[in-house]
């Protein structure tokens, strides 16, 4: 693995950095807003905020950088794995918003690989312009880590499927115009082989969304219900009862997690910068407790390890190797590091860490400490639990037998 850019990579990094500094609207600069602000602006109803979001979309779209890894014939950037890594690295360093989410990294590629020409024509261009937001209907109350146990049914009725069931933890469903669904179309087949992959307009009668507000008081997740929902058969991606294999395709896209690795670095830097301020010196206990200083040193080392593991994964991708257990090691490293960093920060400020109100003079780092502490509880559950990742590492990485 080479830690340094070669001349071509260095030139592309400068191009990406110069582009962001020139084109990123001032509203989205690091010291102004976070990377989630673009989506909030898009749905705000405020014409000025919506124009900021469109301005950033137009700048990225002009270079094909909304979907940098998509083939150019579908409107993407056609970038190599290393170029995508560099672009994402620079975006993350500037805290610049990414346009789109699952529709770019997972759903769009599934349509490109497995979808009909009609589906490509209908959806890909609208995804690239930011015209449509998507969510992913995979997990269910009884099918999370064991996703293949899903029970939401889709019964064929002529040229339509009729869907009944429930999904849970549906990220962004309250903002999404479309949903990519895994449904059971053959209840008698082995559980991996009776699943189909469907695309559904969220305005279809019978679809309802109920918010799930987490303990950090954030609304990101939702429950999604389907009651006699009719979806055309032409909206199926891939063959009937082969949806599981379509979904597996999605997991191979953008697995370097460079944004999360850079965010972990930035989180630690923000803590280190804050405790040097007058307010931070008053509220931090690290000067009196050597154990806290050692703890912070451990957190710094862990963020650097996570960043270098991301470099390892992208180096594999650049060689045409699909990361397997290496991606699980990286995910586990980043998410556990985020948890430990949040807990260390809470201990660092003592009772000041309990203040949620960022405007209060008693709040530590404007309330970010307690918010991080609470919001990272789910880090080692979401996207594949820590136990699942350890099983992958043990069996595929170390060659240990299944228990």
Level-1 CATH class name of the largest domain: Mainly Alpha
Instruction: Point out poorly predicted stretches.
Output: none
Number of helices: 13
Which whole number gives the mean pLDDT?
89
- Across the major sheet, the strand order is 1-4-5-8
Tally of strands:
8
| Shape assignment | globular
How would you characterize the largest beta sheet?
A: 4 strands, mixed
Terminal Cα separation, in Å? 33 Å
Strand share of the residues?
5-15%
The sequence of SSEs as H and E is HHHHHHEEEEEEEEHHHHHHH
Q: Tell me the name of the CATH homologous superfamily of the largest domain.
A: Butyryl-CoA Dehydrogenase, subunit A, domain 3
Please tell me the total number of domains.
3
Looking at the overall shape, the CATH architecture of the largest domain is Up-down Bundle
Q: What fold name stands as the CATH topology of the largest domain?
A: Butyryl-CoA Dehydrogenase, subunit A, domain 3
